[in-house]
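chain below, 221 aa
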Amino acid sequence: MNGYTRRPAAPPAVMNLIIANIVAFAAMTLLIKSPAQEWRIYDLFALHPVQSPWFEPWQAVTYMFMHGSFSHLFFNMFALWMFGRTLEIELGTKRFLIYYFVCGIGAALFQMAVGQIDISRLAAGSADYMMYMKIPTVGASGAVFGLLLAFGMMHPNAVIMLLIPPIPIKAKWFVVIYGAIELFFGISGRMDSIAHFAHLGGMFWGWLLLLWWRRRRRIFY
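prediction:
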């Protein structure tokens, strides 16, 4: 043997997460026959504000496996594949899964906390209040942004080739720029159909967990 160990192309956690997300999306696309059925699924498994009559504790996990469109699913799974493979190999499958779900659940908590501020400005029972109660958050983006943060911290000088525009950029600057963009849109209220604070929440909880692991000498970077 020459001492070289080939890395697996598809680490198990990343592959199973992608499969679970695809199966969930396919089930909603193929099995739901009416808008009423679709909204019933969203009421049960998408993330709602705490005051909402549709809120359930398990939604902090299940919302990560729901996506509003094929493009939403595709880009989240593409990022999970691109960054998750390296991170799972380096962290180990168990620690990778812990990190992924801490970021995803942390993103949900962050989104709900920010939502509390918005809700406090609305008159209870008003049309805007009721609309806020009904509109859910879905997607793996919060957990994926945590993966992006981890990749940038553990491989700051790795070069990422952007798709639009097609230019190379170091991972550390990619994370900083993307985080700044999310913060700008979150504060300004632009593109309000996207849960910008959930993305930032995933990055924030990922950052805390990585620092805690490094302090306890669980990981080195």
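Residues 1-5 have pLDDT under 50 and may be disordered. The chain has one domain: 12-215.
thats it, cya
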